[in-house]
Amino acid sequence: ASKLRATESYTVAGQPAPEKGLTLTGASAVPGGGVHAVFSRAATGESVEMDADFLVACDRGDCDPALFKCLNDAEIVYDGHVVIDAAFRTNDPDVYATGDIAKFSRRYATDGGKLQPLDRHDPKESGFLLADSLIDRVRGLRPRDAPPAFNAPKCESVILPGKCQFLFVARPARFERPSWDATPGGRAIETRSDERGYARIDVDADGIVSAFYYCGDVKVDSQRMGCIVGLPVSYLGEDLSSAACLLTHLDRDAFSAVFHEGFAQAHRSAVALLSAPKDALAESFLGAQNDGAMVQDIVIDFVRRHASDLPQLAIPSRA
Length: 319
Known about the structure:
Blueprint: E1 22-29, E2 35-41, E3 47-52, H1 65-73, E4 82-84, E5 102-104, H2 123-138, E6 154-160, E7 164-170, H3 172-176, E8 187-193, E9 197-203, E10 209-216, H4 222-226, H5 246-250, H6 263-275, H7 280-286, H8 291-305
Parallel strand pairs: 4-5
Antiparallel strand pairs: 1-2, 2-3, 6-7, 7-10, 8-9, 9-10
Helix pairs in contact: 6-8
């Protein structure tokens, strides 16, 4: 098929001839399906109305003129994005930026690597990290020397024609080069259900959940599914690969703690504890525990601390 150009419209046999020079001014859903679109004819300014099964609109990416003028007048460095340092500061140390408009300076890229624009990261996490930089400044601490680690997955959810949801939740690196293939050395676990649609979990070579896909009529909470991305797949049960439906499997009470908003941070704390060197003083407090026992204790402690949020989980009381 030939590539479509934004300045032209295309139709099928039996439909009105395509027109050029129309600017979309409004659109609304039609009861029962379809869309009613309103255009303005550039040559005359007259209004043109059309009904269609669906409407596709696009435009060239551009910077808002008023915003660009403000940045230019303030002499803020702009290179397709507002350039920031590791502490989210622009070239004016009193002006901070994050989100879709910002990117880290190229000087932080190492070994020929490429830093991802901040629109590849979860905006909520970016905001928290910027707030941390502001707090450090107020406390008189030295700004960080390298960009912070981003742990939160990015979620994209759209409603397709027919009210079918497509959801993609993944670690930030997966958005740099989107691909349907699992990561090298990894695997994909997928199920298809007439009632709950298609679901898939990608696991990388280290056994970490790197992405979650869903397509179906039942609406799935993207933020909830983001909770499992970045965690070891072992948290999701030994029988995950044989599950008839991934969504039904994950709805089990046994995994409710995994979907708690604080569990991912608890996991990262556990990893940091396990990777820390063990000295004699630490072992005198912790005892000679193996890694599995320590992780189990951390998870149990998490459930105890959040018992009011997780009433479906019963943890034996301490002796």
